[in-house]
Amino acid sequence: MKKLLIALAAALVGATTAQAADLAARPYTKAPPLAAVYDWTGFYVGGNVGYGWGENTNPSLTVVNPGGAGNIGPFLTTGLPGFPTGNLFPNLKPSGVFGGGQFGYDKQFGTWVLGVVADIQAADFKANALVTTPTTTCCNANESLSAKSDWFGTVRGKAGFAANDWLFYGTGGLAYGDAKSTIGLACTPGGVACGGIAFAGNTSEVRVGWAAGAGISKTWGNWNVGVEYLHMDLGRSSVTALSTNGLFTTTTITESQRFIEDMVRLTVNYKWGSPVVARY
């Protein structure tokens, strides 16, 4: 009996060893490599420079001219013999360069990014023109108008799509800035023979409006560079001209005009925090 048990045990050991030898070795597989995925979450600060081109200021005229003194009101609104009809103040398109800084925060949710940004800019948006209207009588009428903006800023929300280290976004919110205008009306060669018509005025005010646009950014570590388009509308600003020689003390000439700019700028930002997260 003892010999039988020993023989059965030996047979089982031999069979197990043979089966293990027949099994193929499990192949070795490496873990998938970690992928570096950019994380847009964080505060950032940077600078920008760009160019803006204005839309038509579309000047709108109001004349207060009691008793029709000097025919100023009729000339400016309906025209007189020898003059064209209507408001002849020039239509302007202020344009120029600008530059400044911005500060913001972005938060990434999967492939979507939400954020807020504020910026302040120094600008050189300006335009001016003089319209000289000849007449068949004693003189010509000169009507001048200017529009200028030295600075502006925005506070905007952002919503975009992140494709790793690329961000495509839309933006919109509050805009504010200064609006400066000058206006003039004079007859040349001037003097009493030409009615003594000489008016001038200027104004400077801070306007509040809105801005909206879109942009694209590309990162290199903690730095990102982007291009942004922005449309800004500060509404209408009015400037009033008064008599400069005291001959028409009750007459005022008021022109309102729009301050609207389309802008393209290059942005450079530095973001605090780790620029990437590692994912399988």
Characterization of this structure:
This protein is mostly beta strands and 280 residues long. The chain has helices at residues 2-22, 72-77; strands spanning 35-38, 42-54, 60-64, 95-109, 112-133, 140-163, 166-188, 198-220, 223-243, 252-271, 276-279. Strand 9 and strand 10 (252-271) form a beta hairpin. It is rod-shaped.
Order of helices and strands: HEEEHEEEEEEEE
What is the overall number of helices? 2
Q: Which structural class should the secondary elements be placed in?
A: mainly beta
The average pLDDT is 85
Q: Strand tally, please?
A: 11
Percentage of residues assigned to helices:
under 10%
Features:
2 helices; 280 residues; eight-stranded antiparallel barrel; 11 strands; mainly beta; 10% helix; two-stranded antiparallel sheet
SSE blueprint and pairings:
Blueprint: H1 2-22, E1 35-38, E2 42-54, E3 60-64, H2 72-77, E4 95-109, E5 112-133, E6 140-163, E7 166-188, E8 198-220, E9 223-243, E10 252-271, E11 276-279
Antiparallel strand pairs: 1-11, 2-4, 2-10, 3-10, 4-5, 5-6, 6-7, 7-8, 8-9, 9-10
